[in-house]
Design goal:
single chain; 137 residues; five-stranded mixed beta barrel; 1 helix
Length: 137
């Protein structure tokens, strides 16, 4: 089984790209604090690279920014490539199945959310209901 669940803060703004076939891909990294303090009394953090695909990628790019808190569920993936100097490099990243936005809504995000279909009335505009003695309660 290959399953990862992380909660952390973005260390940089998400970067959105599109593959040659038109599929959206978003990349960002998060810092996850360790539970315990080190010998100096400081809490260390681990940094993870996250990859998100398709519609979720577009949402991450739209609503997340550096410092945003999110929960990521996905799988660990290792890959390798040859660098310009000919050496072999290895990378590990989390391919996200789900990204949940945590914390406060970023500024301006309210503009993208749909508004209620009917406006709320003030209590002074409400019409009183006649008492009906036939009600069982």
């Amino acid at each position: 089984m290959n399953k990862v669940i992380l909660i952390g803060n973005l260390t940089r703004d998400p970067e959105l790209a599109t593959t040659n076939s038109g599929v959206s891909v978003c990349r960002f990294s998060i810092a996850v604090q360790r539970r315990f303090q080190n010998a100096e009394g400081e809490r260390e953090a681990d940094f993870f690279n996250i990859v998100v695909w398709r519609a979720q990628a577009e949402n991450c790019h739209k609503f997340l920014k550096k410092g945003s808190k999110c929960a990521v569920t996905g799988r660990l993936q290792n890959s390798s490539y040859e660098a310009n100097d000919g050496s072999k490099r290895y990378t590990t990243e989390i391919v996200a199945d789900e990204v949940e936005f945590l914390g406060a809504k970023p500024e301006g995000a309210g503009d993208a959310m749909p508004k209620a279909a009917t406006p709320k009335k003030a209590t002074t505009e409400l019409v009183p209901i006649d008492d009906d003695d036939s009600l069982p309660f």
